[in-house]
Specification:
Radius of gyration: 19 Å
Largest sheet: none
InterPro entries: Homeodomain-like_sf (IPR009057), HTH_TetR (IPR001647), Tet_transcr_reg_TetR-rel_C_sf (IPR036271), TetR_C (IPR011075)
CATH architecture of the largest domain: Orthogonal Bundle
Organism: Streptacidiphilus alkalitolerans
Strand content: under 5%
CATH topology of the largest domain: Tetracycline Repressor, domain 2
Order of helices and strands: HHHHHHHHHH
Number of strands: 0
CATH class of the largest domain: Mainly Alpha
Number of domains: 2
Shape: elongated
Keywords: DNA-binding, Transcription, Transcription regulation
CATH superfamily of the largest domain: Tetracycline Repressor, domain 2
Pfam families: TetR_C_13 (PF16925), TetR_N (PF00440)
Protein name: TetR/AcrR family transcriptional regulator
Number of helices: 10
Length: about 200
């Protein structure tokens, strides 16, 4: 897919990106089943032939949407990832995640997780794509913890802590979406960061 994208003209790349963005929004709002290719075509302002020019079928478009949502989620947090090697940086990241949910009025949940729940049991290829996206997210969190561990400021396995932090985040996002309040996310992340704090060797 990347090779194909590189071969597109600039206009072609823009058209493809518009289709993916429209599909991502519709799948996020309506769910995978309800977001039809006809809906995507109309939302993107393109013809049916244009959709099929860039994507052989809905599965190909879904995989592109998973990559799109993964990139969007990670880019939103990118300014914070470099600072996850301190407790202050971790707590600033926590605050940013909570603030983002407040701006969304606790609606929508996690764009990657929402797709994952729809494809986990019936679409192995898409499930692996979502799992890969979560691994990238986990890796970004783990990077800061590994730096703390390398400096001698963390006395436990950073890999397990990163996985637990992402799991707490996902559970918090789901409950926040269902309850329409940020407290579940706040409690989940605070509990995880408090645990990390107990394993630090600096004040």
């Amino acid at each position: 897919m990347e090779t194909q994208t590189r071969r597109l003209t600039r206009k072609g790349q823009e058209t493809r990106a518009r289709i993916v963005a429209a599909a991502a929004q519709l799948m996020y709002e309506r769910g995978l089943t309800e977001a039809t290719l006809e809906d995507v075509r109309a939302a993107a302002g393109v013809s049916g032939s244009q959709v099929y020019h860039y994507f052989a079928d809905k599965q190909a478009l879904l995989l592109a949407v998973i990559e799109h949502q993964t990139q969007a989620v990670l880019e939103m947090q990118q300014p914070h990832f470099a600072a996850l090697d301190t407790m202050a940086g971790l707590r600033q990241w926590r605050d940013a995640m909570v603030e983002y949910q407040l701006r969304l009025q606790c609606r929508g949940g996690c764009p990657i997780g929402s797709l994952g729940s729809e494809v986990a049991e019936n679409n192995p290829e898409a499930r692996l794509a979502v799992a890969s996206g979560f691994l990238r997210w986990e890796s970004a969190i783990r990077g800061g913890l590994q730096t703390m561990h390398a400096r001698g400021e963390l006395d436990t396995d950073p890999e397990d802590l990163a996985l637990a932090t992402l799991a707490a985040l996902q559970g918090g996002l789901l409950l926040t979406q269902l309850q329409r309040r940020v407290k579940p996310l706040e409690v989940a992340l605070d509990a995880m960061l408090d645990l990390i704090q107990t394993h630090t060797t600096t004040p």
